[in-house]
Amino acid sequence: MNTHLTTALDLAARGVPVLPLRAGKLPAGNCPACRDNACGGRPNMKTPGPCTCPRPCHAWAAATTDPAVLTSRTWRAAWADAAAVAWHPGGAGLTVVDLDHADAVAWARATLPATRAVATTRGEHWLYRGAMASSNGVRDGVDIKSAMSYARWLGPGSGTMAPLPDTVRGLNDRKPATPVRPVIVKAPAGGGECPHRTPTYLERGIGMAEQQITGARSAVHHIVYRTFLAVLATHGRCDCLTDTHISRLFAAAQAKGESPRHCADAWANATTALGM
Hints:
The protein is an alpha+beta fold. The protein contains nine helices and ten strands. The strands form two sheets. Strands 4, 5, 6, 7, 8 and 10 form a six-stranded mixed β-sheet that branches.
């Protein structure tokens, strides 16, 4: 049996919802039935509840403890391509404080109650009993992974797991404010006709941009920036591009793990590069 599937089944037997991860810590890509949200599912992962698709294509919402699902024919291809196992902390009633570098670890040791710790590539995961809202960037190098989020399984760790303290719950309240999204520069007065003679042209462009971001397997930061740049270069100098379109692009990027702050920075850098 596939090693990752064996690990997943062991975790599932202990009540931990799991799903396969591709290289780059990405969940399985949307299946044809769910691409472009045709199934009415949760590509932005903002709605609680399980994925109803038979394939593991909606990230955290696909996490399950059902061995029949994990070993089903439709999931086997995903496990064959898996680079790691992910788990849904909130679904297990837990919270992961993801400490991304040494300074963040030092802060946690000086500030948070001791609990079970799991070593990561650059820092540590601290696990607490209890679930809460997930949020990235609550402070430098610190993310909260719990409800509607997934974390890579890196082993059981060491230490006694402590109850989720108010100190951690309060991190969301102290999260730095998201920078204001830059305003799109409109075409100058008398600047000529809008090139988008029908809504279809713009809609197709936004849809392609969403697919470009959603399909990113690596270098997500770079792909998000290049996609924003392309959208602005084509659609950013007329009145057609709306806040709704921009929100769709930001949502696609955040579904790939980008924080609102990173999205705003990428958008600002793209507008600067184009002289807007």
